[in-house]
C-alpha cells in the first residue's frame, strides 16, 4: 500500500495540531491552577487582616481606660482601622498594603504610648490583646509571603516562552506583589 505524499503531509500536520492543542490546554490549566492559588493565598491575607481589624477596637477600649487623655493617638488608630477596612478586598494590592501600613504605624504608636502607663502595661487584658495582635501580625507576614510566592510562580509561568503565548491569548496576568509600605520598610529607630 502506497501512501501519497499529500496524505502523509496531512497526517503529520494533524498530529502536530493535536500536540499543540494538548500543550495549549495543559499550559492553560497550569495558569488557571496558579491563578487560583494566588486568589486562595489572597483570601488568607484577608482573613488575617480582618482578625487584626477585629482586635483593634478592644485594644483601643483597654487603652482608653488608662490613657483616655491621649485622644489624638486613639483617634489616629481608629481612623487608620477605618481606612484599612475601607481599602477592603475590592482595592488594588498597593492601596490595601498602604492602608494596612498606616494601621501598623498607628498601632506602633499606641504600644509606645503604653510604655508611659505602668498600670496599662501590667493589665492582663492589654497584654493578652498585645500578644494576640503580635501573633496575628506574624500570620499576616506568613500569608503575605505565601501570596507573593504564588504570584511569583504565576508571573514566572506567564512570562516564560512559550507559556506567555497562552497567557497573552487568555488574558491571564499576575497581580501585584503585596509589598510592605515605605514606613514599614524604614529601619526602626531606637532612642535611649
TrEMBL record:
<dbReference type="Pfam" id="PF04011">
    <property type="entry name" value="LemA"/>
</dbReference>
<keyword id="KW-1133">Transmembrane helix</keyword>
<dbReference type="GO" id="GO:0016020">
    <property type="term" value="C:membrane"/>
</dbReference>
<protein>
    <submittedName>
        <fullName>LemA protein</fullName>
    </submittedName>
</protein>
<comment type="similarity">
    <text>Belongs to the LemA family.</text>
</comment>
<keyword id="KW-0812">Transmembrane</keyword>
<dbReference type="InterPro" id="IPR007156">
    <property type="entry name" value="MamQ_LemA"/>
</dbReference>
<keyword id="KW-0472">Membrane</keyword>
<feature type="transmembrane region" description="Helical">
    <location>
        <begin position="6"/>
        <end position="25"/>
    </location>
</feature>
<dbReference type="InterPro" id="IPR023353">
    <property type="entry name" value="LemA-like_dom_sf"/>
</dbReference>
